[in-house]
């Protein structure tokens, strides 16, 4: 941790109790324990609490543990927090859309939006290595991941993913887009091309579609 330590004054209340609980169970830095408990606290509070500082700030945390592989016990420390969250939410784990779930990795921004869609959902996204995210962000079809993650920090009330857009198109046109699951690889360009070919041309000219999505050439 480059010799930097979180000041003792920051270890208050539940943070102090958590450190006393786990400090002797691993060689991990206290700094890691602090960051891990931030995630536990944020996932437990969700959007039920906020502070106002020019806008509503919810307890969202993007945490990154930096240390030498195998020596600093980053994963061990993170697993302590994951275990607590799993126990707190054990009654809901078998639900189709549980209020809390740990998501291993980000395949695409659209997939993440689908995971978050709905009411009062909390998701802890876990990346074993931050490099995996940065590598994805270099791909043309996934270059929107990092900027959009920044947007999600502010907890927007509404953000449309591809699945919700397809569902609305299906509702308006009265037909099912048979290939809707193929977008999971994050290739939006391919999805839009297939969408253009899949929807009947008469449906694209319908007044309802024009009113909902604007001029039809936007789909071309």
User: How large is the count of helical segments?
Assistant: 10
Please tell me the overall pLDDT.
75
Major beta sheet, specifics? Answer: 2 strands, antiparallel
For the largest beta sheet, what order do the strands appear in spatially?
1-2
Instruction: Estimate the helix proportion, in percent.
Output: 40-55%
For the record, give the distance between the C-alpha atoms at the N and C termini, rounded to a whole number: 51 Å
What is the overall shape? globular
The total count of strands amounts to 4
The low-confidence runs, each spanning 5 or more residues with pLDDT under 50, are 182-186, 203-207, 213-220
Spatial extent as radius of gyration: 21 Å
The fraction of residues assigned to DSSP E strands is: 5-15%
Q: Helix/strand/pairing class, anyone?
A: mainly alpha
Described by its quaternary structure, the protein is: single chain
Order of helices and strands: HHEEHEHEHHHHHH
Structure description:
With 220 residues, the chain is mainly alpha-helical. The chain is 45% helix and 6% strand. The chain contains ten helices and four strands; from the N terminus they run H-H-E-E-H-E-H-E-H-H-H-H-H-H. It has helices at residues 13-22, 30-45, 74-88, 109-116, 130-137, 145-152, 162-173, 188-198, 201-204, 207-213; strands at 51-52, 56-57, 100-104, 122-126. The strands form two sheets. Strands 1-2 form a two-stranded antiparallel sheet. Strands 3-4 form a two-stranded parallel ribbon. A hairpin with a 3-residue loop joins strand 1 (51-52) and strand 2 (56-57). Helix 1 crosses helix 2. The longest helix is centred in the first third of the chain and has 16 residues, at 30-45. Mean pLDDT is 75; it is low at 182-186, 203-207 and 213-220.
